[in-house]
């Protein structure tokens, strides 16, 4: 008998958060962890030391949250996303722990300004736009509403490129967020998995006479885990964001090295590491296709191996997987997971195909973020087959099963069969990842009511007919912690004064603010907060760009990825038309406006980059024209990222949400602006529709064709030339741009761009122009009556609570995951 009893390991003593204790600990970390004397410490050292102290206060809660799931057997949610657009973390963590004042005081006692060091934290820009930012908001909300969750993604060494402007053109520079190390993350060397590519598949019979397929990959890399804690509001729960980094199996080929081939000795190692080196931008060239598919498989396989390992450790077998595990596929990027889970269950764990397929389908759910056909991923069959030969077999096996079922049970016609097939047959044969994600999931959700309805009749019409119960809607949301409390502390303070603190825990409790919407003294305070935020943005613009803005002008802002369907072009053409009007009618009372733009264009997206150049060309002309008398300014603020959004959103008077109806799945910027007291000018697209329903028609300015009208115009045959000829303002603006008024150095620069509007106008710029211009003049009329303006904008803040991502996550948890 073993007489040695197990030692009782004590938990660390709870830590005090009194400022003097925090200050002591900061000095301690600075000295012993960073190895710096306080006398010579640089601001970055203070930042790291502070993060380490805050992090310790998170860890206790993190461990408790993890232990609790093991103890209770609660279901775990896994959010697989190729993108997490996190931004900075310190303010988020400190504020969610309720330690803002204590940390500020502790640092002040050491002569350090918290705002200065918080501003040094690099943005973790591991995403392109709304999709990645949604994943970051969801991580925070899952912890807030107490869902045991893991985010899984890639630890890109270089996040989204840094954007600079050179003579008004976008220039992409590498981003280096890890340059000073990353104090938030923990490397988990023990959690690493082998990931294979290429090679062949063998069919063997095991010693117990079981037939099995064995994939013999030609290449292997290691996926190593890096964990970052995700803290919920009031620090109640801490979840894990696990990001994978690729590492070589052999760091160096010593034989080659010793034979004098020093570069060749590192070739394998470089190849492995290049897998997770850069975030691959959306809409990029075919050249990067293979890398992108490799990234997708790499992180899917690593995540699934990790999920199965954890499940097996706790539950012994996989039949309980759908009861204990929910895996959400964020877009099609992780869709190869469907085939990978079947492979792992069958080939590695010996399950038969039918059972593996049932388990897979009940475990996955899929979120679609776009209806744009070009954005629905598909891979050339030869590429897929070469890189993932076993998965190709599984895709064919799934396809055979589903197509037979459709033919037999639903009598599907040939054309319906073609449209639900996992293999695209027209032109080059391709594997359709949208169909794979759909077929492999028990729930498929859109991200706004309109988008979900359109999914049913467009991209997934036939799959919806086959599985009518699977498509459902989960309208997006944003976390009010980052997008109100942290980015707009003055407004938060003002709201607390007016209606108390309940809204901090439940954003829908902002409603009582409605009672103050018409109160002149509250309006004055609201306006003062807005003005201070506009001054802050003006200071940023002055220091970065040397452009002076007048904070009493209307700040009219459009910030998001640059894309033709998002219609920055419509906005800038309207600015040109307004410029003409101001010059032709100096006698009228024009409302002074500053039109601000920010956003990045995918490096290979020529028209998007040209639109950036156009905005800058127009800005230069208008801003230097004395006859405008400062009534109109146009500014493109470079290097849009989460931190810049945190300054621009609170400073907006007018929010531009003007996509071609039917093309923006949801939008989430629209929600951020509304929450921070901006009026929206927008089309009935994406979540704008639900915003109108929530804030009321009087509190939003809607214009333009609706989604069904856009579809009709397109199918009936659109004649943009006739429309342009019928609109004096539009035709003048287009001919000014097209003929080189704004580009005297290259008169033909915009000819093709403008010709596109004349010839097909796919994005309905001409079709919507007059309605948009009229809506802008309506906005001016509201602005002139400032009391009316603030009634509307206060109502926006009051009624935006439903768009909290806490609500969205509760719906996912109750209706899809059945967890939490
Ligand atoms: C995409 C869609 C948006 C949607 C987000 C999140 O984001 O309409 O709001 O995903 O669901 F297009 P972007 O990359 O366009 O920002």
Automatic annotation (TrEMBL):
Annotated keywords: Carbohydrate metabolism, Glycosyltransferase, Pyridoxal phosphate, Transferase
Keyword Glycosyltransferase: yes
E.C. number(s) listed in UniProt: 2.4.1.1
GO molecular function: 1,4-alpha-oligoglucan phosphorylase activity
Catalysed reactions, semicolon-separated: [(1->4)-alpha-D-glucosyl](n) + phosphate = [(1->4)-alpha-D-glucosyl](n-1) + alpha-D-glucose 1-phosphate
Cofactor(s), names only, from the UniProt record: pyridoxal 5'-phosphate
UniProt keyword Transferase present: yes
Source taxon at top rank: Bacteria
InterPro entries assigned: Glycg_phsphrylas, Glyco_trans_35, Pyridoxal_P_attach_site
Family: Belongs to the glycogen phosphorylase family.
Functional description taken from the UniProt entry: Phosphorylase is an important allosteric enzyme in carbohydrate metabolism. Enzymes from different sources differ in their regulatory mechanisms and in their natural substrates. However, all known phosphorylases share catalytic and structural properties. Allosteric enzyme that catalyzes the rate-limiting step in glycogen catabolism, the phosphorolytic cleavage of glycogen to produce glucose-1-phosphate, and plays a central role in maintaining cellular and organismal glucose homeostasis.
Stated name of the protein: Alpha-1,4 glucan phosphorylase
Species lineage: Bacteria, Pseudomonadati, Pseudomonadota, Alphaproteobacteria, Hyphomicrobiales
